[in-house]
Amino acid sequence: MQVRLAGLPAPRVGIVLGTGLGGLADAMQVQLAVPYAEIPEFPRSTVQSHAGQFLFGTLGGVQVVMQQGRNHLYEGYDPDDVCMGVRCMAGLGIDTFIVTNAAGCLNPQWDAGDLMAITDHINFTGRTPLAGENHDAWGPRFPDMSRAYDPSLVRLAMEQADALGIRLERGVYVGVHGPQMETPAETRMFKRLGADAVGMSTVMEVIAARHLSLRILGFSCLTNKNLPDCMEDAPIEVVIAMANKAGGNLARLIESVVGKLA
């Protein structure tokens, strides 16, 4: 599955930027930008704030490829379309996958603007990118998900957050189909299931990445607080604004983590 990228070293780390988190690209020394529109049959990102391109270059002294904008099930895409980005990055040679998202906060002890390292997830979409015939060259028919998020990478993230003075929570992310926001009853259910944050991305990509035997580190930027007894509207403009506000800390943290992988 290995693919050569003419003129550039193979990337070691692949990074997906979620809604409102495109600012991390500013910390990257970009050597090449490839818009999705120039890649045959690659799905186009239709969400506000998603630039829709791959960036190749270095971050923290490490060769990386960054997916600036992703695809979602709620856009009408199939799981295979949603996962095409991480599968392409694996074909380019990455061994570590860092995924980010903007998410609603379910944990009442945390606040909007906080960052969360994902320690586990609940796939509540009813979909999987592994349905159908298995591609043995990618991975096994029944990939293990008991440690989907690499514990050593989570520890590294916590250490770097502490060194930078950034508050970083740890918790469980529940992925839903969307695009509608959660009802109060759904919010109560997700909390009782053990989720700390809820969003509409990430789980498809992580399943595909584990199938490919990649090491995974995930971050949620908590953009709004879901309190079932006093639910408030969370329009996309508010989500993007809060993600942009917290995105600076997330960019510093990811750059520091990637630098330690050199």
Automatic annotation (TrEMBL):
One Pfam family of this chain: PNP_UDP_1
Superkingdom, natural source: Bacteria
Any GO MF annotation of the entry: purine-nucleoside phosphorylase activity
Signal peptide feature range: none
Residue span(s) of domain Nucleoside phosphorylase: 12-258
Keywords from the UniProt entry: Glycosyltransferase, Transferase
Metabolic or biological pathway, per its Swiss-Prot or TrEMBL entry: Purine metabolism; purine nucleoside salvage
InterPro entries noted in UniProt: Nucleoside_phosphorylase_d, Nucleoside_phosphorylase_sf, Pur_Nuc_Pase_Ino/Guo-sp, Purine_phosphorylase
Alphabetical list of CDD domains matching this protein: PNP-EcPNPII_like
Gene Ontology CC annotations of this record: cytoplasm
This enzyme's EC code(s): 2.4.2.1
Similarity-based family: Belongs to the PNP/MTAP phosphorylase family.
Protein role: The purine nucleoside phosphorylases catalyze the phosphorolytic breakdown of the N-glycosidic bond in the beta-(deoxy)ribonucleoside molecules, with the formation of the corresponding free purine bases and pentose-1-phosphate.
Name this protein carries in UniProt: Purine nucleoside phosphorylase
Organism, scientific name: Desulfovibrio subterraneus
Biological classification of the source: Bacteria, Pseudomonadati, Thermodesulfobacteriota, Desulfovibrionia, Desulfovibrionales
